Each structure stands twice: as C-alpha cells, then as structure tokens.
Amino acid sequence: MKRNYLIILAILTTIIFVVVSCASPSPTPAPKPAAPPATAPTAPAAETPIKIGALISLTGAGQIVGPSQKANLEYALEQIGSQVAGRKVQLIMEDDATDPATGIDKAKKLVQFDKVDVILGPIHGAVGAGVANYMGSTTTPLVLWREKPIDVLKLGKNIFLPFGTEDGLSYYVGLYAYDKLGSKTAIVVYEDFLAGVNMTQGAAKIFEKKGGTITQKVPVPPNTMDFSPFLSSMKQADCVIYWFTPPLAQRFTAQYIASGMKMPLVLVLAPQLTSKGLAEMGEKAVGIVGASHYSYLIDTAINKAYVDSFTKKYGFNLLMEQGLDCYITFNMFLEAVKATNGDTSSAKIIDALQKVKRDTPAGMVAFTPERLGIGDYYLSKISKIEDGSINWKVFDKYSQVPLDSPK
Amino acid sequence: MELILTNLLNGISYASILFLIASGMSLIFGVMGILNLAHGALYMLGAFIGITAAAVTHNFLIGAVSAAIGLGIVGLILNYLFLSRLYKQFSEQALLTLGLVYIFSNVVTWIWGPWSVMGEMPGALSGSIPIGSRNFPIYRFGLIAVGLVLFVGLWWLQNKTRVGASIRAGMDNKDMTMALGVNYLMLSMAIFILGVAMGGMAGFLGAPIVGADPAMSMGILLMAMIVVVVGGLGNVQGALIGSLIIGVFDTFGKAYFMDFAMFLVYLIFIIVLMVRPNGLLGKKRI
User: Fold this and answer.
1) Is B194 part of the contact surface with chain A (CB cutoff 8 Å)?
2) Which residues are CB-neighbours of A316 under 8 A, at least 6 positions away?
3) DSSP states of A205-257 as a string?
4) Are residues B9 and B138 in contact, defined by beta-carbon separation less than 8 angstroms?
5) Residue in A with minimal Cα distance to B51
6) Smallest CA–CA separation between A226 and chain B, in Å?
7) Based on CB atoms within 10 Å of each CB, which residue in A99, A264, B85, B186 is the most buried?
8) Which among B118, B135, B223 has the least Cβ separation from residue A280?
9) Which residues in chain A have their CB less than 8 angstroms from residue B258's CB?
10) What is the ipTM of this complex?
11) Which residues pair with B17 in a beta bridge?
C-alpha cells in the first residue's frame, strides 16, 4: 500500500514538474557537447552563430523584473530577424535566481560550455559583483545592467558599465535635493546591503559637501515586512532620500504614506516603484521624485516607436526600465558586431564596443575610454498623466554626462 | 512618551499578523506532528487569492473569507493526498513541504505575475489617528482587534469545548485518544484545514500593511517558526505569547537599536531556547 502510494506520488510529482517546466519560460538549454577533435575541419566564421548570453532574474528576490528582461531581449532579437552582419544571432538566457553563486555558475556555463561571444547582465548588485569577479578572469566581454560600483571596471578590461555607477545616480539625486528642492537637512533610508549603501552614499556625500546635513541614516534589513519602527524613529527633516529593491520600495512608500508623515520623498532610482505598484498606490504617491535613466514619457521619436511597438506586443506592465537595459545593451553589442563586420573575436569586439555610440529610447549612450557609460539622467515626479494614470513624469535632465559622480 | 506608545502599538499590530500566521502553524505541528514548511507559501497564496477576490467584488470581507476558504480547500487537498501519510516522518515532511514552497511560488508567479501587491484597506479603516505629533493607521487597530478575537475564539475552542479537549488529549497520547473512540484522524484534518485557512487569511489581512510578493514565503516561514518555537508548540496561548514577544521586541529593537535590527529577533530566539527548550508555554513531549 505504501509502495503504491510512493509510486503514485512520484508520478504525480513528475507530471507537475513537467507541466510547470513546459509552461514556465525556460531559458536553459542543455549544455552543449564537448568541442570536436582538433583534426575535424572548423566551420567558417560566417556559418557559426553569434551567441549572446544573458543573465536574467526569473526567480528569487529580483524576479519582478525577469519577465520584462526576457521580453526585451526577445523583442530585440526579433527586430533584427535573428541576424546581423551576415551571421545568425543566437540568444541564450539563463536565470541567475538573484543569487550570486547561481549567477557565477550560469556565467561559467555560458562562457565554458556555450562559448558565448558576450554576456549581458546581470541586474542585481551582489550577483553583478560576483559575476564580474569571475568574468575578469576571462576574455569574454561582460556588459552589466543597472548601476554597479565603479570598482567592477578594475576587475577586467572586458567589463563594461553602460548605466554607470550607483554613486553617479545617487550624486544627482543629492544635488537635486539640495539645489532644487532646497532641502538643508535630509534623512537617508536604505536597504542594508551592498547596493543600498552604494545607492545612497553618493547622495549623502554631495548633500553634505554642498552644506546640507544628513540628520539620520536608517539602514533597514533586507526583506523587512513592517517598517513602522523605522518610520517612528525618523525625526523631522526637509526631505527623505531613500532606496530599496522594488518590493520593499513599494512597501516602504505605502507604509510611509499611511503613517501620515509629510517629508518629501526622493527615491534614488525611480523604477524601483513600478508602474503596477504606482497604479496600486494611486494618487497618494503623487509628488514623489526619483532619478532614472529612462521614462516611457520621454518625448523622442525613437522612444515613442519603442513604447508603441513593445507595449503592443508585450503589454504595458512589462515596459520597465530594468528591461530596457537589456534591449539597449543587446543593440549596443550588435552595433559593435557590425563595426567589426561580424568578427566576434574578443579583442576586436571589446575594442568596437568601446567606440559604440547609439541613440536609444533612453537617449544617446556611449562609453568613456574606461568603459563607463555616458548618457542622460532624468529627474521624474510621480504625477497624474494625461491619460489619467499615475506614473513617473520627467521634469528635468542631466544630459550626456559620464554616469558616475564627478571626481 | 508618544514614541514609546506608537512603537508599542506598532509592535502589537505586527504581533497580530505574526499570531495569525503562527497560531495555525503551531496547531498543525502540535496536533498533527506535521512540520509544514510551506506555511509561508500558503500565507502568500492566501494574500493573492484574497486580494483578487476583494478587487473583483470590491468587498474586503469577501476577500478575507475567500482567502480562508481558498486556503482551506488547498489544505484539504494537501492533507488528504500527502501529509496525512507522513505522520512523524519529519524528514519526508520537510522535503515535501519545501518542494511545495517552490511550487506555490511558481504557481503564483504564473497566475499573477512576479509583481508585489499591497492590498487595499477597507474604507472605514483607511484613516489614521493622531497620537501626539504622530499618526497611527486605524487599520493596525483593526488588526489588533482581529488578532484578539481570533485568540479568544481559538482559546475557547481549545479549552472550553469537547473538540478542544479531544485535541489536547490527542496531543498527549494519540493512541489512547483514538482507543476511546475519538476520530482523531478527522479531527487532525479539521485542525490542519483550520490552520492553513488562518494562514491564508493572515496573508490577506496583512497585505495592506506588508504587501505580498511571490518571493516572500521563506521570510514569512522564518518569522512564524521563531514565534512558534519561542511560544511553545501546540497551544494558542504559546502562539500569542510568542507573537507578542517577537513583535514587540523586534519593533522596539528596530526603533532604538537600528544597527542590531537584523539579528535582534534571533537573539531572543536563542535566549528562549537556552532557558526553555520547549518554548515558554510548551510542554515536554514523551
């Protein structure tokens, strides 16, 4: 009886596993077999596909952006008809599970088994640091998403930081808070891990350099559910500068508003409050200011075309800045491939990547000689848009700046 | 003074959420001997089901009831198909329920997407009350009230009813209880369903404050287990005491000792385990 039960249980579990695996997006192909013996003739370069590896976050704490990342990469691939410079383009996506150890394992798999020509991503700060550390020991270029510490560029000359540093984004937020908001005192609230510290320290530094006072720093443990003790400990200041990962950003903002506190909120990275989250919070969130590299309301032809076409295919909820990073870096890499006439050997592609300058929905993007991104920072305010929705609306911009805090 | 009062109220309202989650888990483990590591995932699932029902019907009460009933059905299926066959097989229970955590997280992502949701407060409870210069959300008072009502109900069931007497007898000696004609298997199933339903409802009731997202299961489970271990297994009073201690200490700790916020609750956990390994109100098992 017990044996029969165990057999039934095993069959049921296998069926469930197969169904879920088939239904879920599955970016993981089986590892390729070992390379053929040296005596076999090698295929001409034009016949071998260009392999683009991507580390996306489909599971774990960062899974909120995974579907948008996947959609943007597939969209970018579809736009070029899976071909560039006479060669087929193959996209290999892996789930980093928002975990550094998993991210490194998947990066190794992409480099050693799949022999990709580039790795795009990952997005999460800790995963990015781990992957960059490994990739610095290879020759495969790595193009990171979102802001990362400047030190990752020292790990290898094959590492690129197109969206700049956490310090850079944070710097312009601090500048805004002092110069434009007119705040003389500020409280800094952040999720207490690497990215949280990095995302807010730039703002604090420039704020104090300008003459302001950071009256309190409130480090909040990751995965905090109830912010009330932190909210109750916050004293009065002219503004609150904060940063959290998306689920916590929404939670903190909602609880802050519910507590009745009136200090202006300045979010270091606007997309941490997603469109869906803003729709939930409604007009209560109006007035919050945030900085970003992008807004879907940017008034350029290229952005309008992207927004119209992407949302038509994937819906508005997948239109996220974090996903756009994937689209932009994919196209930047292709630009480099075109420049080398399809030659994806490491040295040539790295050299070509460094010289890329491309107009994107987020504005013009390029690299400094040190492989740091040059682009635009936008300041946005949560507003009621013309169509009645609540979303980020751009009101100011820092144009074509190296995306790091000025030294 | 107003700061202390605000934090005390915050701590008690947080303890209410913890009590709603942990009381179910405590009963399930205490009565059935089932280590349900999927309790956090069931909390999460309840939040999503309840929020969806409330959004469709524009009725908070229907949302709460839907969360409870929905999770009750899930609990019935889980117990009937799997858990009732794994009595006292803790390793197997742990493996199975851990697997269920991943399944539920993926099912929620599949159906509702990877987004976090906040849940809407009912209109009557959506304001705040001034306490000195600070405002305290009325909804948190509602949570405290719900926690109290539930505690009284469960205490009455446990201590003043024949059913409760059978449960307590079964926890002490299951074989003897069954030999006396009590259908303990049916009773256990009912307790399991009740525990899971409470966890699901806790998810919905907590959502306007703490939100819900597919990746939150393990965090919830950890807090629930700490409360259950601190309070002691298998009784409602233990769950209440554990919730209050953890809720209040965690809140005050975060408010006044921010640098130690990350591990303060574990410190309490360790101290209680060293002093009373069965929990504050737990009984030593034969």
Assistant:
1) no
2) A275
3) HHHHHTT-EEEEEEEE-TT----HHHHHHPPP-SEEEEE--HHHHHHHHHHHH
4) no
5) A280
6) 6
7) A99
8) B118
9) 218-219, 230, 233
10) 0.84
11) none
